[in-house]
């Protein structure tokens, strides 16, 4: 059995756009740029050269949500909210030891940063203030394939005693 801690930080550049037409066209944009995880890992070997593992922990990301009302009577109302969101990550993977210290890795993670309901106060084109509400669900999958090298002596092949 293998126990460990893993962490990563990367750039995703994920952008999702949507529209609705009730009563005027509205554009929504959800963007996730930088994200990272800090996870615990538990694994076991299923063959002498293959390890399967499960991982779970904390996820964080730089998230922005935007609402734009480009048509009259709102004439370009735009509001953007951004900041760091936190949630959880869960996943698993396989490590294959090949040719001495070289490893081939495959991993799949599900990241859930939660959902947020936001009220937008539209002051342009309304008598007084109009309110639009949007619910944002920030979750995504990350699939990785990789090659890595284990520094140190080459693993010793053990053979059972007779």
Break the fold down into its secondary structure elements and pairings.
Blueprint: E1 2-21, E2 25-47, E3 50-69, E4 77-98, E5 102-122, E6 130-149
Antiparallel strand pairs: 1-2, 2-3, 3-4, 4-5, 5-6
Q: Give the CATH architecture.
A: Beta Barrel
Percent helix among the residues?
A: under 10%
CATH class: Mainly Beta
Structural class: mainly beta
**Sheet with most strands: strand arrangement:** 1-2-3-4-5-6
Flag low-confidence runs.
none
Helix and strand sequence:
EEEEEE
Q: How many distinct domains?
A: 1
Distance between the termini: 25 Å
Largest sheet: 6 strands, antiparallel
User: CATH topology, which one?
Assistant: Porin
The oligomerization state is single chain
Strand content: over 45%
Supply the number of helical segments: 0
Mean pLDDT, all residues: 86
Write down how many β-strands occur, each being a DSSP E stretch of 2 or more residues. 6
Gross geometry:
rod-shaped
Query: From the alpha-carbon coordinates, what is the Rg to the nearest angstrom?
Result: 23 Å
In short:
The chain has 162 residues and is mainly β. The chain is built from no helices and 6 strands.
Architecture overview:
With 162 residues, the chain is mostly beta strands. It has a single domain, classed as Porin. Strands 1-2-3-4-5-6 form a six-stranded antiparallel sheet, with no helix packed on it. Strand 2 and strand 3 form a beta hairpin. The mean pLDDT is 86.
């Amino acid at each position: 059995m293998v126990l460990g801690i893993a962490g990563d930080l990367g750039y995703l550049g994920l952008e999702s756009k949507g529209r609705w037409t009730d009563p005027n066209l509205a554009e929504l944009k959800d963007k996730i740029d930088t994200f990272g995880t800090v996870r615990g890992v538990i694994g076991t070997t299923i063959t002498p050269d293959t390890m399967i593992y499960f991982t779970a922990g904390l996820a964080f990301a730089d998230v922005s949500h935007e609402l734009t009302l480009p048509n009259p009577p709102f004439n370009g109302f735009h509001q953007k909210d951004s900041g760091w969101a936190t949630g959880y990550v869960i996943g698993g993977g396989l490590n294959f030891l090949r040719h001495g210290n070289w490893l081939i890795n495959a991993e799949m993670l599900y990241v859930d940063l939660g959902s947020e309901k936001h009220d937008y106060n539209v002051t342009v084109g309304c008598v007084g203030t109009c309110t639009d509400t949007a619910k944002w669900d920030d979750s995504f999958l990350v699939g990785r394939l990789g090659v890595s090298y284990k520094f140190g002596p080459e693993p010793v092949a053990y053979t059972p005693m007779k």
